[in-house]
Amino acid sequence: MQKLKRLASALVLAVICIMMLPVTAFADTPYVTYTIDGYGQIRQTQSAYLAYATITKFDDEALAEPSDICLSEDGLIYIADSGNARIVVGTPDGGLVKVIGQGTLKNPRGVYVTENGDVYVADRDAGKIFIFGRDGSLINEYGKPNSPLYGDEVSFLPIKIVVNDAGIMFVVCESNTNGIVEISPTDGGTFLGYFGTNYAATDLKTVIYRAILTDAQRAKMVSNIPATPTNLAIDDKGLIFTVTRGNETDTLKRLNIAGTNMISNHDRTYADTPSAVAAGNHDNVYVADQQGYIFEYNNEGEMLFVFGGPDDGTQRVGLSTMVSGIAIDSEDRIFVLDSDKAQVQVYEPTEFTDLLHNALYLYSKGRYTDAKEPLTKILKMNSMFDYANKAMGRCLFQEENYKEALRYARLAKDYSGYSDAFWEIRNVWLKNNVMTLILVIVLLVIAVRVLKTLDSKKQIFKKQKKALKKFRKKSFVSDVAYAGYFMKKPSDGAYGIAAEGRDNWLASTFLLVIFIAEFVIGKYTCGFLAKTVMEGRYEIMSDIGTIIIGIIALTACTYLVCTINEGEGTVKKIYTFFCYSLMPYIVFMPIAYILSHVLTNNEIFLTTMVSILTYGWIAVIAVIGLKEVNNFTMGQTFKVIFLTAFAALILALLIFIIYVLWAQVFEFIYALFGEGVYRLGN
């Protein structure tokens, strides 16, 4: 028994010690992996890739300022060793295979290896493209194209190159803003034209300046020229990927044979200083940031992961200083070239990433049922991984399981997928219930007409009408109903508020309460496609407080400004017409609310249109009410509106300053109280 007690005590002690140990997420890596959720926000997730190894040299051959990396079909690593003017060929374990181009190359900046083993080298200082055979012998070289379409004064400084199956070369040239240079190997190198040209960014301010300035002034402005692509890659379909610094949402492009960008995603999750790009094995693409961050995207440009980062001097595996190249092998290992450290960082995918790649592959092949298995495993590992939820929803949609597709689309915040699934569900419901719906409508119309006929002949609703009439004569009910009259005839209604005693604190406040209730209900419970807030996020008290403070501040500022400008409106009258002006929202926004639950993306514009018309209506009757209640001219009215807006801004600034000061005072008092308690305790 004593032994059992000692054993139990030891186990309890061990559990307590384990619980007391610090827990660190993703401890196997010196960096954190992030993904993007359906709201476009960056979220931490499981490690996608682990730092596998670092290649500092190949046998005894060290690198000097390497600038590009490429992997051949047989898994060999080709590095443009710019500082040593050569191409180094090695194995993934750091073994040296051969050296190419020594004595021929001057400053190789880009390297590409074809399926048959030919090595294409972009040599900047030589101003040429060199082609070497598998054995390292020089096969051919191409200089500046002779075509006048290239530009006589445009220099030929090749820095990056890829080649398609037809042998056509796509070359990035330094400082050439016309685009990628496309060269055919025929006739000693035929210039086919510029490919995938970037567009110069133009804003309205620049357009106006250039329109009004003189030629001399325009000449002094910064030239608005398109950016030169930073790097490029090619996939097994012949599609070209480019990355360009400073090109905002067009940082990453996926170009078809016509040079048209096939990526339309604009979630702004791109590298700030992209330096390299590589096509993956699963219709995906990788972008390396110069600072060491690695981004992975699907074929639509949606970010899957971002990991890695800059080295802070600790020399930890997986962190880089100056990335200049990236390549992917057949096992999805990532080879990142660090030109500053003259080394190659190697990353291998985790089980989580392997499952995702498998799902991507199966989905791209149309095997939706098979893709569900790896997606299910992914969601067991991380149920909040929105991309997996989105992919699962799309798979279920292809299987015509629309209800489940709808559920997963909502989890992933996939508005397009949700709309498609809801469209199908709605169609099924309409097919099954359209006749019943028509019959109910017809019966309701008949019933209304019958009841009207009976009432006109036998007065069957006489008592109800009398009670309703008596109810509407009550002062409170009459004033609430008067808001509807004000909505239809704001000029006459405002006169009633100003001169006929239609200003009523209780009725106005009642309408404000209804407005607040509709606003809160609409904001948090409207249809998914119309919702503008995150699921599960509720700030109801903040919303109510903002509206109440806003209407009080607006009333106070308007009254003060109107009084200064000899307006006739009192606080009560101004508050009343402001609250009555909310009547269009109270009447019409429930319609938009209902529509938001039954419309898809193709018709959701109807709710937007209702909202625009409603807010426009509110603005118009509020302006008319302000004019009539204060007996202003239209010029005076707009003057007061401007002054009121300015006064409200000053008031908001004053409240903010007071809040900050009181927060500091409260913090000081709290700290002082805590210090006193501490000293008394000791």
UniProtKB/TrEMBL annotation:
Q: Using the record, list the residue span of the signal peptide; answer none if the entry has no such feature.
A: 1-27
Cellular component GO terms, alphabetical: membrane
Question: What transmembrane ranges does the database entry give?
Answer: 434-451, 505-524, 544-562, 574-598, 604-626, 638-662
What stretches of residues are NHL repeats? Answer: 94-135
**Which Pfam family name is an example for this entry?**
Yip1
**Per UniProt, what is the membrane topology?**
Multi-pass membrane protein
Annotated ranges, domain Yip1: 487-655
Task: Extract the Gene3D superfamilies matched here.
Answer: Tetratricopeptide repeat domain, TolB, C-terminal domain
Q: Does the keyword rRNA processing apply?
A: no
Decide whether keyword Transmembrane is in the record.
yes
What are the subcellular locations of this protein?
Answer: Membrane
InterPro entries (alphabetical) = 6-blade_b-propeller_TolB-like, NHL_repeat, TPR-like_helical_dom_sf, TRIM-NHL_E3_ligases, Yip1_dom
> What are the entry keywords?
Membrane, Repeat, Signal, Transmembrane, Transmembrane helix
Record GO terms (molecular function):
zinc ion binding
The record, for PANTHER family, names: E3 UBIQUITIN-PROTEIN LIGASE NHLRC1-RELATED, PROTEIN LIN-41
Kindly provide the name given to this protein in its UniProt entry. Answer: NHL repeat protein
Specify the species. Ruminococcus albus 8
* Lineage of the species this protein comes from: Bacteria, Bacillati, Bacillota, Clostridia, Eubacteriales
